[in-house]
């Protein structure tokens, strides 16, 4: 087996994969694979309900919120958020701190007025002090991305907003890696393929009073009220993916819940950042230390701009040691280690040791 540091689709817990493998052909007493079950049958309905229940328990989701399971990925939610929520005032605040929030803001501009609360920048390396933000008290919502997968920027606070403005947050790459109070949000969503399951499903947690106000152009499968009424089975859902995701939720509970995931995330990320710090600039991370991600750690080798030969050699050596998907996103280059919940402390130790050995071999 390789050590997978991919940003998404990402590593799944080995224990979950073994469990899924065991049940692949015959789930429980059903006599069939989950992939073959009717999405409206009793066998699948039990899986569906258990998946949602496990998430509700992990996040302590109250009754005035609804868990929705949507198709279309995080990108689909960029539009769904607008179509369901922007109609209240026709405008929304967007905090752009990386590539994904920038894409969300661009999509939102199709459906209403987008107020960029931060000045545009060419590189995303920090989160400006909220005192400098230009918020619109008339906004239908404030949108931000809690963890930018490409750029490695992660919020360490929940923004303060004008009274009555709901907060919408994309938590695709760090959900279930630390505790948050859902009551502070109007809507939280996460594409599964980074931290909680296979690609093909997006989890949304929506405050119920925000449903029922969708634009007339909203497709039924993106209308939160329609999905809530049908418990996310308005059409045929990706049943097998939901089943695997439910197994991941159960695995997190067995590991000790979100606190255990958070403690591990700190250990893993600190290992990698520590190797950078002790290298004297050989490894460099462009991000302000206050917003360095625990989930996605980007860095350059051989200086702030990177050295192509050294970075290629690093990636080649990593693959020879069975560490894969460490190449940085094509838009920023360099190296990126994604340290999601399924990546073990031992995996991070393997990478940290290799970084140390590579530095000793190539330092000037």
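Q: What amino acid sequence fits the structure above?
A:
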């Amino acid at each position: 087996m390789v050590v997978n540091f991919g940003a998404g689709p990402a590593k799944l817990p080995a224990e979950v994969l073994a469990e899924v493998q065991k049940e692949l052909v015959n789930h429980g007493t059903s006599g069939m694979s989950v992939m073959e079950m009717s999405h409206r049958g009793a066998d699948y309905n039990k899986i569906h309900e258990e998946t949602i229940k496990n998430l509700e328990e992990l996040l302590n989701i109250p009754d005035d919120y609804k868990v929705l399971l949507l198709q279309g990925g995080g990108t689909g939610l960029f539009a769904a958020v607008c179509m369901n929520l922007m109609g209240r005032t026709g405008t929304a605040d967007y905090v752009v701190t990386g590539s994904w929030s920038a894409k969300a803001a661009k999509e939102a501009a199709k459906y209403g007025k987008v107020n960029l609360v931060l000045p545009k920048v060419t590189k995303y390396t920090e989160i400006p002090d909220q005192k400098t933000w230009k918020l619109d008290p008339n906004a239908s919502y404030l949108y931000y991305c809690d963890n930018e997968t490409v750029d490695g920027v992660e919020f360490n606070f929940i923004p303060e907003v004008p009274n009555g403005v709901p907060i919408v947050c994309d938590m695709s790459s760090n959900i279930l890696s630390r505790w948050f109070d859902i009551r502070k949000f109007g809507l939280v969503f996460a594409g599964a393929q980074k931290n909680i399951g296979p690609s093909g499903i997006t989890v949304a947690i929506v405050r119920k009073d925000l449903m029922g106000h969708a634009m007339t152009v909203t497709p039924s499968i993106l209308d939160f009220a329609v999905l809530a009424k049908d418990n996310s089975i308005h059409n045929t859902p990706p049943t097998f993916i939901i089943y695997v995701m439910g197994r991941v939720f159960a695995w997190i509970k067995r590991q000790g819940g979100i606190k255990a995931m958070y403690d591990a995330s700190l250990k893993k990320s600190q290992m990698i950042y520590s190797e950078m710090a002790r290298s004297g600039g050989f490894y460099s991370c462009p991000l302000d230390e206050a917003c360095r991600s625990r989930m996605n750690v980007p860095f350059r080798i051989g200086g702030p701009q990177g050295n192509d030969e050294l970075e290629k050699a690093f990636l080649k050596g990593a693959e020879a040691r069975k560490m894969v998907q460490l190449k940085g996103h094509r838009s920023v280059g360099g190296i990126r280690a994604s340290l999601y919940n399924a990546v073990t402390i031992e995996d991070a130790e393997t990478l940290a040791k290799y970084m140390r050995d590579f530095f000793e071999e190539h330092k000037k």
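Q: And what stands out in the fold?
A: Residues 67 and 205 are 5 Å apart (CA to CA).
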